[in-house]
């Protein structure tokens, strides 16, 4: 087991017990406090009633180990032990000094869990220090940018930022200073081959004792989304030229419910520009059940319905709605 530095200095202040023939023959007040038993109680217990059996074996054979101590209330605590074999009553006893490291163990476990989550994330996760040097680079970052961790850690973050995008860092720092983090920031980054890729970034400060020591960033590749948006815009442009003069109302809505196009016939029923607005945020459409009709169509259903619609000013109109999903040439 790897030794912990300066252990002798640490253990000079710690709990102490002496074990002979699997019985505790001495326990100092620190050990009594650690386990919750008095010495009188401890002297009547077997060693495997204080330590789990598998840990008892380590205590008997090793010079230094981490074991679990079973407290009187049944709780278990992690302890770091240093074990010496000393003569006693013509035989050999174990003189054990120990320190409670439960909180350190919890921190280690949290760090291990966090590391596992970060390494298993589908999104690229990186971290930089205050000088902009990369100090963490997960597996997804390797896949997205093409740099192995050992290639990029220690290098400056500018290695993945196009020159014309570097001024954005000042904007990001200002937002963090004002809001505490940056979420959903769309930009571009460079791969190892120099290819520009569109990404969405979430940036948060890393703190130690309340002081910022660096920044972590999550990169989400939005290449497919951008390509879909481009194709969708081409569709909107195509239909706009056809529908601007149509004698019926025409709406084109993206997959998230935002109105990408409303022809003049539709706009005459509204006092404000509805393009760019989310159709599911309209109280009027919700009140008339139109939102559910749109939702069905966005889920791939062809809808053909008639009904009565009450306008905001209270006037009734009758409608016939046909909704159909629009798809890009590759079926999206």
Task: Write up this protein.
The chain is α+β, with helices and mostly antiparallel strands and 332 residues long. The protein has 3 domains: 7-102, Beta-Lactamase; 121-221, PAS domain (Beta-Lactamase, 2-Layer Sandwich); 226-323, Beta-Lactamase, CATH 3.30.450.20. 32% of the residues lie in helices and 32% in strands. It contains 12 helices and 14 strands. It has helices at residues 7-11, 29-35, 39-42, 53-61, 102-120, 139-145, 149-152, 168-179, 223-243, 264-267, 283-287, 290-298, and strands at 15-20, 23-27, 64-70, 76-88, 91-100, 124-129, 134-137, 182-190, 196-208, 211-221, 251-253, 259-262, 303-310, 316-323. The strands form 4 sheets. Strands 2-1-5-4-3 form a 5-stranded antiparallel sheet. It has a 5-stranded antiparallel sheet with strand order 7-6-10-9-8. It has a two-stranded antiparallel ribbon with strand order 11-12. β6 and β7 (134-137) form a beta hairpin. It is elongated and about 110 Å long.
Features:
332 residues, alpha+beta, Beta-Lactamase, 3 domains, five-stranded antiparallel sheet, 12 helices
Task: Indicate the low-confidence ranges by residue numbers.
Answer: 1-7, 9-13
The gross shape turns out to be: elongated
The CATH topology of the largest domain: Beta-Lactamase
Mean pLDDT: 84
How large a portion of the residues is in β-strands, by DSSP E? 25-35%
Question: Can I get a quick summary?
Answer:
The chain is of the alpha+beta class and 332 residues long. Helix content is 32%, strand content 32%.
Record the SSE blueprint.
Blueprint: H1 7-11, E1 15-20, E2 23-27, H2 29-35, H3 39-42, H4 53-61, E3 64-70, E4 76-88, E5 91-100, H5 102-120, E6 124-129, E7 134-137, H6 139-145, H7 149-152, H8 168-179, E8 182-190, E9 196-208, E10 211-221, H9 223-243, E11 251-253, E12 259-262, H10 264-267, H11 283-287, H12 290-298, E13 303-310, E14 316-323
Antiparallel strand pairs: 1-2, 1-5, 3-4, 4-5, 6-7, 6-10, 8-9, 9-10, 11-12, 13-14
């Amino acid at each position: 087991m790897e030794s912990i530095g300066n252990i002798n200095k640490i253990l000079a202040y710690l709990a102490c017990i002496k074990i002979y023939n699997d019985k505790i023959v001495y326990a100092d007040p620190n050990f009594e406090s650690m386990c919750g038993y008095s010495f009188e109680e401890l002297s009547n217990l077997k060693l495997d009633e204080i330590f789990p059996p598998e840990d008892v074996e380590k205590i008997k054979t090793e010079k230094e180990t981490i074991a679990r101590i079973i407290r009187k209330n049944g709780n278990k605590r992690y302890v770091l032990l240093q074990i010496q074999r000393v003569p006693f009553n013509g035989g050999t006893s174990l003189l054990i000094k120990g320190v409670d490291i439960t909180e350190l163990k919890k921190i280690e476990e949290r760090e291990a869990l966090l590391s596992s989550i970060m390494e298993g994330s589908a999104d690229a996760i990186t971290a930089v220090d205050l000088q902009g040097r990369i100090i963490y680079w997960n597996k997804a970052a390797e896949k997205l940018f093409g740099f192995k961790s050992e290639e990029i850690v220690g290098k400056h973050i500018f290695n993945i930022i196009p020159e014309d995008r570097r001024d954005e860092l000042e904007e990001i720092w200002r937002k963090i200073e004002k809001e505490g983090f940056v979420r959903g920031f769309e930009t571009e980054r460079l791969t190892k081959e120099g290819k520009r890729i569109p990404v969405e970034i979430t940036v948060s400060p890393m703190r130690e004792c309340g002081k910022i020591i660096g920044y972590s960033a999550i990169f989400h590749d939005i290449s497919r989304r951008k390509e879909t948006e481009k194709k969708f815009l081409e569709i909107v442009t195509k239909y706009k030229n056809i529908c601007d003069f149509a004698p019926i109302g025409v709406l084109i809505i993206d997959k998230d419910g935002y109105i990408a196009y409303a022809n003049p016939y539709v706009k005459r029923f509204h006092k404000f520009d509805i393009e760019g607005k989310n159709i599911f945020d309209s109280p009027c459409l919700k009140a008339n059940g139109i939102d559910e009709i749109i939702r069905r169509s966005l889920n791939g259903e062809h809808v053909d319905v008639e009904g009565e619609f009450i306008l905001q000013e209270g006037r009734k109109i009758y409608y016939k709605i046909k909704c159909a999903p629009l798809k890009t040439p590759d079926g999206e």
